[in-house]
Design goal:
single chain, alpha/beta, Rossmann fold, seven-stranded mixed β-sheet, about 30% helix
């Protein structure tokens, strides 16, 4: 099998990087923060600085999305205490610029994770296309709720690998599955909410890595 050069952008956990490495690919992660596992396969820098390093596949897992997603659109008209409208719109422009750079990177196969976007974000993204699919951790054997939009270029949608049956609302199991959404405010909340589950990471490495490897072999 031909090893692919894979960049996992905006990831500190190493979950997706390790999934590709375990399948024989030359995988690296990148983020402004250091890697949680202190791996020497992590580049601590702006992802835009390394997009041109001849990658076969780019997966951007947790780009800053607060100003792009529907849940944050209200701040563009009524900013939170201590912030101004120019601040909010400047952060929207920066978030859209980062997404655009990744989406239009000189890489043949690109996946970018992001929640549903509002119209102001869509208008600012170069060559915007709707998300190819929205997946849930419980499609891949993980007892959790977290709808994740995947914007795909040159890659197929993910197929479920171990679909679970969600528990009924109001039950204790449903509360446990909703832990991400019920996370208490605090400095570590962003990390819990940006968590990538191993089941999804394995599906990405198996399905996208295998599909891209077959493409390379046939070229």
């Amino acid at each position: 099998m031909k090893a692919l050069r894979v960049l996992i952008g905006c990831e500190t956990s190493g979950v997706v990087r390790r999934a590709f490495l375990e399948r024989g690919h030359d995988a690296w992660s990148c983020d402004l923060l250091p890697a949680d596992d202190r791996s020497n396969r992590h580049m601590q820098c702006d992802i835009r600085d390394v997009l041109g390093m001849s990658w076969d596949l780019l997966a951007v897992m947790h780009p800053p999305c607060t100003r792009l997603c529907n849940s944050g659109v209200r701040w563009l008209s009524a900013p939170p205490k201590g912030r101004s409208l120019p601040d909010m719109w400047a952060e929207l422009d920066e978030g859209a610029a980062l997404f655009s750079a990744c989406w239009n990177a000189p890489v043949p196969r690109v996946a970018v994770e992001n929640p549903v976007m509002h119209r102001h974000a869509k208008a600012r993204i170069e060559n915007y296309q709707p998300a190819a699919q929205h997946v849930q951790p419980w499609w891949f054997g993980e007892p959790a709720f977290k709808a994740t939009g995947l914007y795909l270029r040159g890659l197929p949608p993910l197929s479920p690998t171990d679909r679970l049956t969600p528990p009924d609302k109001g039950t204790e199991d449903h509360k446990r599955w909703s832990a991400i959404h019920r996370a208490s405010p605090g400095p570590g909340r962003w990390k819990q909410r940006s968590k990538t589950f191993p089941g999804i990471a394995a599906a990405m490495a198996d399905q996208w890595g295998g599909w891209a490897t077959n493409q390379e072999a046939a070229a």
